[in-house]
Every structure is written in structure tokens, then in C-alpha cells.
Specification:
alpha/beta, 7-stranded parallel β-sheet, Glucose 1-dehydrogenase, 8 helices, NAD(P)-bd_dom_sf
Length: 249
């Protein structure tokens, strides 16, 4: 018996990194998975390897949300789970950041999450229940130099999650957020970010002194997607190795 047997899940940003880990674990736990990404080559390769359904999906565009949700319902007749995982990070200090870069980060990370929630309400109502898991960040609790747009977007995801949880509870749709810390993905290895961070001091600040594997986040996401989390909604789950311990948030 898998944790997600019988569930149909849509995962955004699923072609690589943490999203790919979500896709693989959800499949291993018995879910039927549709995943989207703008990385078409990587997406098609992962679909061919795993049997998951890939759709090209720009999360900032309502029509592509309609297509992605439609693909899941057409393929499997229902939709039970949404993982709003797609996200981007641009390291720029406020003085140096263009409005276009700021808008792009907010567009993918916050607008994309809001559009996702909006897009799955009707199919989840039709299914009789649902679970939405929004991927925020520890930067949704504390600001970081050079990450004003990213932090703003991830703080915003927290607020959208809580509002949606209140609005959708009457339809038996749960909405929670997950806040990863130092995860070993390509996004955190952005050359500009790496060049600005004192890696040795950063590791020393950790309670668990290592970067996490992406699947360590996926296990929390899968739990929230499952019926075992039936009494969890509007809640925030950190997967940060204790990084925020004593941070005063």
C-alpha cells in the first residue's frame, strides 16, 4: 500500500530539482502524476523514464493552467492533489534589481501559486476533497540580503495559503505550505548567489550541518498530500535542518 494510492496529482516545476523528486516519490507512493514545466527537453525525458504525464506549463499564464488541469482530468478522470512547486530565484540587491526581474520572480512564485489554487478549485470540488501544497521557503519567514523579490514572493505564499485554507475548508480542500531551507538543487547553486554567500559560515549556522536531499522535502509534501494529514490545513511546515531555530520569526 502506497501513501498516495488512488490519488491524482498535478506538480508544477516538475522537470528537475525538487520538483523531479516530488514526481518520483509520488509515483513510488502510488499516485498518478501529471507534471508541468517550461523545460521541455527535461520534462519529456522524465516522463519517458517514469510514465508520468508531462505538459508544458508556464505557471504565470491562466490558459496554460487550464490546459494542465485539463490534461490531468482528461487522463485520469479527477484531480486530488496540487503541488505548487514551480519557482525561480534571482539574486539582486534592491538598488541593482530591475523592475522586470522583480516582476518575473513575483509572477512565477506568487502569481503562479495563486493561479494554481484558483485553477484546481472546481475539479477538487468535483472529486469531493483535495489537498494543495504550496512550496514557500525559509525566506518566507526571514528576509535575506539580495533576495528581496524572492523573500517577498515567499512571504506572499504564506498569506495566500492561509486565506485559501479558510476559503476552501468547506469543500474539504486542505491548503498547507512547506518551507525548505538549504536544499541541494541547481537553484541554490546560482553563480551570483554562491559568489555572495560565505559557505563555511552558512554551514556552521545550521543545526543539522548539511544540505538536504530534495527527496527529504518530498516526503513532507507527500504526507500533506495524503489522507494522513487530514486535520492539517493553513499550516506551515519547515524542512530546514533547524536553520530557523532561534531566528525569532
Amino acid at each position: 500500500m502506497g501513501l498516495l494510492d488512488g490519488k491524482v496529482a498535478l506538480i508544477t516545476g516538475g522537470a528537475r530539482g525538487m520538483g523531479e523528486a516530488h514526481v518520483r516519490l509520488f509515483l513510488a507512493e502510488g499516485a498518478r502524476v501529471v507534471f508541468g514545466d517550461v523545460l521541455e527537453e527535461e520534462g519529456k525525458a522524465l516522463a519517458a523514464e517514469t510514465g508520468a504525464v508531462y505538459v508544458r506549463h508556464d505557471v504565470t499564464r491562466p490558459e496554460e493552467w487550464e490546459a494542465a488541469v485539463g490534461a490531468a482530468v482528461e487522463a485520469y478522470g479527477r484531480l486530488d492533489v496540487l503541488v505548487n512547486n514551480a519557482g525561480i530565484l534571482k539574486f539582486r540587491r534592491i538598488a541593482d534589481m530591475s523592475l522586470e526581474d522583480f516582476d518575473q520572480v513575483i509572477g512565477v512564485n506568487l502569481r503562479g501559486t495563486w493561479l494554481g489554487i484558483k485553477s484546481v478549485i472546481e475539479p477538487m470540488k468535483a472529486a469531493g476533497r483535495g489537498s494543495i501544497v504550496n512550496i514557500s521557503s525559509i525566506e518566507g519567514y526571514v528576509g535575506a540580503e539580495g533576495l528581496s523579490a524572492y523573500s517577498a514572493s515567499k512571504f506572499g505564499v504564506r498569506g495566500v495559503t492561509k486565506s485559501a485554507a479558510r476559503e476552501l475548508a468547506k469543500f474539504k480542500i486542505r491548503v498547507n505550505s512547506v518551507h525548505p531551507g538549504a536544499i541541494n538543487t541547481s537553484m541554490v547553486m546560482d553563480p551570483e548567489l554562491v559568489g555572495e554567500v560565505d559557505a563555511e559560515a552558512f554551514v556552521k549556522s545550521m543545526v543539522i550541518k548539511r544540505f538536504a536531499k530534495p527527496v527529504e522535502v518530498s516526503h513532507v509534501v507527500a504526507f500533506l498530500a495524503s489522507d494522513r494529514a487530514s486535520y492539517c490545513t493553513g499550516s506551515e511546515f519547515t524542512v530546514d535542518g533547524g536553520l530557523l531555530t532561534g531566528a525569532g520569526y
